[in-house]
Amino acid sequence: MSKNKNFEYLGSSFQLQLLNQIIVDKDFARSIIDVIEVNYFENKYFKLIIQMIREYYAKYEHTPTFDTLEQITKSELQQETASKIVIDTISKIKDAPIEGGEFVQEKAMKFCKQQELQKVMGKAQKIIDGGEFENYDKLEQLVRNALQVGEREDGMINVFSNLDEVLDEDYRHPIPMGVSGIDRLLKGGLAKGEIGVVLAPTGVGKTTLMTKITNHAFNLGYNVLQIFFEDNPKIIQRKHIVLWTKIHPDELTIKKDEVLTKVNEIKTTMPNQLILKKLPSDTMTMLQIKNQVRKMIADGTKIDMISLDYIDCVYLIET
Asked: Domain for residue 82, yes or no?
């Protein structure tokens, strides 16, 4: 776990971008505002600005605009020199580049998660050292709460929110499945937060269909995670190679040179990733799978689509 106590190790430019993201991206602000602390920032002016943002958010439940921050500065900072420096800093925050915003958000959120976990570990150690056996059941909840830092989906939304996006012709931004009939029925494919389930008897080609769907999404430039439990990884790899090369499975070895040429071409030209992950059957819970995906995202691998073959292999715990 990181020993860094603040964002200083990431530099001033990172902190300027982070403050910009908190002001501009309302969803991100809502997810991080309760856990991002003043002392995480490097200098007193950054600290002063994040404090103003936090206080404003606590009162109005949304972040202030840049103009509002300037007005607050002018009305509350009596010292002219300090006021000018803060206003200049706000201007720099406003002009911070938006490129790399996702990286800044993920890095900041990961840092805050680490800090929350460190706090939890400190509380846990006190419970253990004190022999407070009756409080042991609280440890799991403490850790779970720390891991859930940054969860944005609270299920509630104002009916008047984001109307421009709601009325966008392609408001779902679906990922096509690569099967014309399915895409037609799904109005373009599956979108963020949507789940598709394939039901069929054993041996009719569910894994082959799932592989085709993931392969198509990868070819469109998406990062795809294909999780499976029972198949040999080499079998899944060969299915993808068949889709790319159009060579019959029985001829892949015979036409090895042709296959390698085509696959290497795809490997060098596609900037996205297609990740195959084999997991043990009947021992992995959905929470464990979710945490593995979260770790991949925290480590910098953005996942656009997840294929899971198949749900019966997930260990379901009664709660």
From this structure: yes
Model pLDDT for residues 255-284, shown as the tens digit of each residue: 999 999 999 999 999 999 999 999 998 888
Q: What residue type is 124 in one-letter code?
A: A
In this prediction, residue 223 has a pLDDT band, given cuts at 50, 70 and 90, of very high
Residue 96: which of 166, 163, 24 has the closest Cα? Answer: 24
From 95, 125, 156, the end of a domain falls on 156
Q: Are 305 and 217 in contact (CB under 8 A)?
A: yes
DSSP-assigned letters across all residues of 94-108: HTS--TTHHHHHHHH
For residues 151 and 202, membership in a common domain is answered with: no
Q: Name residues whose C-beta falls within 8 Å of residue 160's C-beta, 6 or more positions apart in sequence.
A: none
Question: Is residue 174 within 8 Å of residue 190, measured between CB atoms?
Answer: yes
d(CA 21, CA 94): 10
User: pLDDT of 104-159, one tens digit each?
Assistant: 998 998 898 888 888 777 777 776 677 665 665 666 666 666 666 665 555 566 77
Locate 314 and state its tokens: 């997930």
Residues 6+ apart with CB under 8 A from 248: 242
- State how far the alpha carbon of 296 is from the alpha carbons of 290, 293, 300, 303, in Å: 10, 5, 7, 8
Q: Looking at the structure, do residues 141 and 20 belong to the same domain, yes or no?
A: yes
Nearest in space to 47 (alpha carbons), one of 56, 38, 55: 38
Residue 7 per-residue DSSP state = G
316 DSSP assignment: P
Q: Which string of b and e fits 204-239 if b means at least 16 CB within 10 Å?
A: eeebebbbbbbbbbbbeebbbbbbbbeeeeeebebb
The answer on 143 and 6 residing in a single domain is yes
What pLDDT is attached to residue 297?
Answer: 76
Q: Decide which of 130, 156, 182 is a domain's last residue.
A: 156
Domain that holds residue 309: 197-313
Q: What's this model's pTM, rounded to 2 decimal places?
A: 0.52
Looking at the structure, do residues 127 and 250 belong to the same domain, yes or no? no
Residue 253: pLDDT over 50:
yes
